[in-house]
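Hey, I'm writing a tutorial for new members on how sequence and structure tokens pair up, and I'd like a real worked example in the thread rather than a made-up one. If someone can provide the structure for the chain below, I'll link this post from the tutorial.
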Amino acid sequence: MKHLLLNALQPLGLLLLSAGIALAQPTVTALMPARNGMVTRNGSVSVTFSNVLDASSTAALRVFSAQQGGKKAGQAVVVGNQLTFTPTKSFLPGENLWVTLTTAARDQNNITLAQPQVWQLSGAVTSSPGTFSRTATIALPGIADLLATGDLDGDGDLDIVSANTTGVLSVQSNDGTGTFAARADMVMTYTPRALNLGDVDGDGDLDVVVTGSSTQLSYCTVFTNDGQATFTAQATLGVGLASTTVGLADLDGDSDLDLVLSEENYRAVTMYPNNGTGTFGTGSAVKSLATFGTSVIAGDIDNDGDLDLLAFNTSTNQVNIRLNT
């Protein structure tokens, strides 16, 4: 009966449009979980709208993980005015998640969402005593000063990627019990200063992005993943001097991860938009810093549905907040 009523009302909406009468644009009325909330291991991500959605809106909802699979595989479904994404693999405890809702969301009168929205979630964790014991020590080459964990080979556990001061990037796969395989090393032509993991090419696995310097030049390299933790260096970007932080976040709401760097010697925070395939466009200064900046992070500071930036200045001990418009 409900579907019959909706089908009967749809021609009325088209008639109103043809008569020049504006129909209400769909808006987001609820998020589940809420912004900055926790999603259970077997949970889903849902968005409720003011209007009944068109079935094509399933393409509008994307979930990215910083630790498992990059752009998460799963199924999105539309039921009435609700759009829900359920991942193929369960969420990990403590997993950091970015959710993007694009303007591909539209109602049954073909009216689209006015602005994209981006928000953060984390995987729920179980209660524990918080006591730790030493179980193993892993040898790394040279002086390793950069470390990240993520499911690089898609087998459901967290692997290790590290970089050292001599320009060696190392990957070690986890067997699922906390025992790690021998290192796979890649040699870079510069000294790394920051690294991050993210699915920059949108193929469902975690890539590695490294920034660093050699003599008076600075670089940023994307190492794309084949899904089995084998990495290939792509084109290296020439970036501002002494980039000390590499951030990955969907800053423009187009469902891919953009690159943001804190460039110490240029005293600037610079954003490089992702072209959708893991290649990046020309950088644009987001914030010029009066003093040296060493760190930048993204988050929805003003709760308006997009990601803002916070940059730290070492000379003044200040945090500069840049709101996304």
